[in-house]
Amino acid sequence: MTADMMTFLPADAAGDALPLHLVEADGLEAFVEGQPDSVAAWVRANGFAGGLGQVLMVPGEGGAPAMALVGYGDAAARARGRFWLGGAAPKLPAGAYRLATDLPHETLEAEATGWLFSAYTFERYRAQPAHGARLVAPEGVDAARIEAIAAGEALARDLINTPASDMGPAELEAAARALAEAHGATIAVTTGAELLEQNFPMIHTVGRAATEARAPRLIDIRWGDDGPALTLVGKGVCFDTGGLNLKGGASMGLMKKDMGGAANVLGLAKILMARGMPLRLRVLIPAVENAVAGDAFRPQDILTARNGLTVEINNTDAEGRLVLADALAFGAEENPDLMISFATLTGAARVAVGPDIAPFFTDDVNVASALGSAGAVVADPVWRMPFHEPYETMIEPGIADLDNAPKGGFAGAITAALFLRRFAGPRARYTHFDIYGWVPAAQPARPKGGAGQGIRALHAALPGILGL
């Protein structure tokens, strides 16, 4: 992927760009009637019916393309997905296009975002085909904002797609440093034995079995001097073997993406900093590898977290909540106005809502409403899940304050979220996203692989939530 492909052409390029028409199936006849007879004949002869995703190049005098048509189906068909304009972009010949169809503002913004997303390719290990269709910035959209969103999404995808051989804790730190330096942020990193000295015992414990080169660490980025305080916490388990409760091969196969929470908060931070959001941003990433070695932590060990709570380990494969706990407790010590965690935390969340929806937990109805509304507008589907109080007893083993893996298998996403809430300070100030961070099968503008989830919804909702 080249960065320029994920930007719009400037408005002054419109004069040389081909008009691109979105044509709904039930609006095809009206469109054709408004065109010259030669265009109408060409459309009919080629069987273009306005079906969702259909693409047709229409020639002008001398046979050169005069316009492009993209089928836009009907509302019912479009509701079964998103980014339909972006999905059509790879089918178009290389060149410059300008959108020649009026769309409602929110739809236009979402479709323009999808167009930029469609230009993403992951080329670190092998050259990948990329389409050469470029779009002139549509009139009425904030092109710079959408380009910043696309850049943040690309960062999240790149980090998740990179295998653990090249994206361990040290490499994740390097990516965080590069981001901080690019935007004038400060960064501090606590590594290895320093974690014990600085009272991050659970981050150290989970990561201590890894090699010295892949030592555990806590990454702490700060940016901005004024405005409300926002703390983002991202799970950075760069590879998860399951520890001594070793995963099977099928379950371990995608564990390079277990740092998807960290990738998403870095992608969101990139957007917020690039857009100059008036806030005090902090990003905390506990970066570890959950490895197997003689000093790996064990089932039935009891750990003491940063905030003094004790945790009985009943499954070493429920490690993400342990490293997040120390990071959340650290973040809560400054009483931020809002603290949000992102983590690829539980299979239970995937069973509940599938891979396409980002479930979130919050005690604040205003945050919930803002996120739900924003997610619908920006085509970033989210869904509120409950911090169900009666399940608190399920995470209390008796021998310690908390159990990291309650038996029985019920409500796994909820009990994990309740566990995290014990470390996050005032309840109304904490929201948790349990994301998948992966597209299992290619979708329009969303290739198979790493993905941002929930970060565009949160970006859109933050001004209302924080009063910006």
Helix content range: 25-40%
- This entry's quaternary arrangement is single chain
Terminal CA distance reads: 33 Å
Largest sheet: 9 strands, mixed
What is the number of beta strands? Answer: 19
The CATH superfamily of the largest domain turns out to be: Zn peptidases
Supply the number of structural domains.
Answer: 2
Anisotropy-based shape: elongated
What is the CA-atom radius of gyration, in angstroms? 24 Å
Strand content: 15-25%
State the name of the first-level CATH class of the largest domain. Answer: Alpha Beta
Determine the mean pLDDT: 97
Low-confidence runs of at least 5 consecutive residues:
none
What CATH architecture label of the largest domain applies? 3-Layer(aba) Sandwich
SS class = alpha/beta
User: How many helical elements?
Assistant: 16
CATH topology term of the largest domain: Aminopeptidase
Annotate the secondary structure layout.
Layout: E1 18-24, H1 28-33, H2 37-45, E2 55-59, E3 65-73, H3 75-78, H4 84-88, E4 95-99, H5 105-117, E5 133-135, H6 143-161, H7 169-182, E6 186-191, H8 194-197, H9 201-207, E7 217-223, E8 229-234, E9 236-240, H10 249-252, H11 260-274, E10 280-290, E11 302-304, E12 310-312, H12 320-332, E13 338-343, H13 347-353, E14 358-362, H14 365-377, E15 382-385, E16 402-403, H15 412-421, E17 430-434, E18 438-439, E19 449-450, H16 455-466
Parallel strand pairs: 1-3, 1-4, 4-5, 8-10, 8-13, 9-10, 12-16, 13-17, 14-15
Antiparallel strand pairs: 2-3, 6-7, 7-10, 11-12, 14-17, 18-19
Helix pairs in contact: 5-6, 6-11, 9-12, 14-16
